């Protein structure tokens, strides 16, 4: 989505979902780890559970996606992207999800949070 | 964004940001109040602060947008959209924001939450 929302100052407290989507994620060393496809939001609480990373190409039926907890990524205005202190190998080793199961994650997400030593959102 | 994410079952706990965007919002009587342009996410906590509604047309410089607290909208699978127990007139009377200020809302959002008698996210 291209509009003014995507052109805002990076220094503010809030960020538009439209700007998060499509934003690259880099390692601290500057390697591109992937792109944020979308964030998954808990319907009732409005809490972002995790970001879904994409590694290029389009998703199709049967795609596996790589969830990354929100608290693992930090916006870096200088890089125009997010930085996660993880490696591509860690992401590839991390629990993946069937794309069509990304919204019914509760029972399946515990391994993801354990793997990343991250705090579940609930 | 059109992909499998947008075709998922509506009954699960999480929802993709990509599916929220572009989704209509109806009154309980079925009147279309607008469309969700995006949700604004607190960068640190990952909490959705509010949804930005769009009333048709594209945003340009100087556009005013209408924020609606997340807890005012509920997904209705039967309507394939959200339902908010508000009227179009209430939305038009509610505090609006310059689009380019939607991510620096803290100081300006208090009237919005007061108007809607809603709980601020922070």
Automatic annotation (TrEMBL), chains A, B:
<dbReference type="Pfam" id="PF05239">
    <property type="entry name" value="PRC"/>
</dbReference>
<protein>
    <submittedName>
        <fullName>PRC-barrel domain-containing protein</fullName>
    </submittedName>
</protein>
<dbReference type="InterPro" id="IPR011033">
    <property type="entry name" value="PRC_barrel-like_sf"/>
</dbReference>
<feature type="domain" description="PRC-barrel">
    <location>
        <begin position="14"/>
        <end position="90"/>
    </location>
</feature>
<dbReference type="InterPro" id="IPR027275">
    <property type="entry name" value="PRC-brl_dom"/>
</dbReference>
């Amino acid at each position: 989505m291209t509009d003014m929302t995507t052109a805002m100052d990076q220094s503010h407290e809030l960020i538009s979902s439209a700007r998060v989507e499509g934003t690259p994620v880099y390692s601290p060393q500057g390697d591109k780890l992937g792109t944020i496809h979308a964030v998954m939001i808990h319907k009732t609480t409005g809490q972002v559970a995790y970001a879904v990373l994409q590694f290029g190409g389009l998703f199709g039926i049967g795609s596996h996606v790589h969830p990354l907890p929100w608290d693992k990524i930090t916006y870096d205005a200088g890089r125009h992207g997010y930085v996660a202190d993880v490696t591509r190998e860690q992401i590839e080793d991390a629990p993946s999800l069937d794309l069509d199961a990304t919204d019914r994650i509760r029972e399946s997400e515990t391994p993801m949070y354990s793997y990343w030593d991250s705090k579940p959102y609930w």
